[in-house]
Specification:
about 375 residues, Aspartate Aminotransferase, domain 1, 2 domains, 4-stranded mixed sheet, 14 helices, globular
Length: about 375
């Protein structure tokens, strides 16, 4: 049967029908009064989602573009930065920093393990001359299914006093609580095809007053990604360059849906789906790649030890039209990842786990009782 694809990957994530319909409207002029009104509403709702009174700026870019903007607008060539690397995306931010001539020091953890917050504390406390200008890392490392401890690392950054904290929240914003103002974060970057529940193409950067102070003396080159331009135009509910008009229609609809559900309900749903998925995988006697205490709300990574991960992905796609994510870099072929981010509900998890059970049986894996995974997931769902 055609057109029944079920996306269970960390992005792009499923898109609600009303969001797709909003995106299908005829474009309007991005300098028109009607578009200005939409921008005013969207900007206010983005601040609500980020839990901030500070600027939240929108780019026609991917999450990587938003994160690059979040790095280059507040630093100067040769600045010393600490970059947390425990997966594909932490490694990427180190590469971005190196490309712009920053003095990069990495704090590493094995893929599948969270960053050690104590290493950040030690490095920051040792910097008595306040040479570290930024601490940069990924909150939800979707390459491994690990959630890093932003709150604790941020406390160490605040104790340092000088450094900015710049965080990739691409797959955690809209899935887990990130109170930007309460925690005093400086820069967070995200992308539209994740918790926002819309297709790829928009990037978002929230910026604190402290970061804007750093912007005034930052000397890294920038033009299209110059956030000062976006801030100036955002004050007039406009944009410095041509925006992705129809994606902003979609964003308007998605943010209305999110407000109707409410932040606490959104966070609780993602927590429930994460716990249900992990309980199901354990019931199927499949090893989880990340520990329970650091489980990402976006994705659950599984490292099967008796069956090929790519065969599982291939069969479940062919037989049930369900897309699971694979491993990246040295994990390619070793893990598969089940997404539960954005427009995903209880029914989706139960369906995916049932299909996974049938796939495992088809591939000759017998180290579980049929129905055990679905029962374990259902128990979490019905008791949450």
């Amino acid at each position: 049967m055609d057109n029944k694809l079920m996306l269970m990957i960390p992005g792009p994530t499923p898109v609600p029908e009303q969001v797709l319909l909003a995106m299908a409207k005829h474009p309007i002029g991005h300098r028109s009064g009607d578009f200005t009104q939409i921008m005013a509403e969207v900007t206010a709702n983005l601040k609500w989602l980020h839990q901030t009174e500070s600027d939240v700026l929108m780019l026609a870019a991917s999450g990587t573009g938003a994160m690059e903007a979040g790095i280059i607008n507040f630093l100067s060539p040769g600045d010393r930065v600490l970059v947390g690397c425990n997966g594909k995306f932490g490694d990427r931010w180190a590469e971005v920093c190196q490309a712009y001539g920053l003095n990069v020091e990495t704090i590493k953890a094995e893929w599948g393990k969270p960053l050690d917050t104590e290493q950040f504390r030690v490095q920051l406390e040792a910097d008595t001359e306040k040479q570290i200008k930024a601490v940069i890392f990924t909150h939800s490392e979707t390459s491994t299914g690990v959630l890093n401890d932003v709150e604790t690392i941020n406390r160490h950054v605040k104790a340092h006093g000088e450094a900015l904290i710049i965080v990739d929240v691409v797959t955690s914003l809209g899935a887990v609580n990130i109170p930007f103002d309460t925690w005093g974060l400086d820069v967070v970057a995200s992308g539209s095809q994740k918790g926002f529940m819309i297709p790829p193409g928009l990037g978002f950067v929230a910026v604190s007053p402290k970061a804007w102070t750093a912007y005034s003396t930052a000397k890294l080159p920038r033009y299209y990604l110059d956030l000062g331009k976006y801030r100036k135009d955002a004050a007039k509910n406009s944009t410095p360059f041509t925006p992705a008009v129809n994606l902003i229609f979609a964003l308007q609809a998605a943010l209305r849906m999110m407000q109707a559900e409410g932040l606490e309900s959104i966070f609780a749903r993602h927590q429930r789906l994460t716990q249900a998925t992990r309980a199901a995988i354990k019931a199927l006697n499949l090893p989880l790649f990340a520990p329970d205490y650091a489980a990402s709300p976006a994705i659950t990574a599984v490292i099967p030890d008796q069956i090929d991960a790519e065969k599982i992905r291939s069969v479940i796609k062919k037989r049930f039209d369900i897309a699971l994510a694979g491993g990246q870099d040295h994990l390619k072929g070793k893990i598969f990842r089940i997404g539960h981010l954005g427009f995903v509900g209880d029914r989706d998890i139960l369906s995916a786990i049932a299909a996974l059970e049938a796939t495992l049986q088809d591939l000759g894996y017998e180290d579980f009782s049929p129905g055990a995974g679905v029962a374990a997931a259902a128990k979490v769902i019905t008791h949450s």
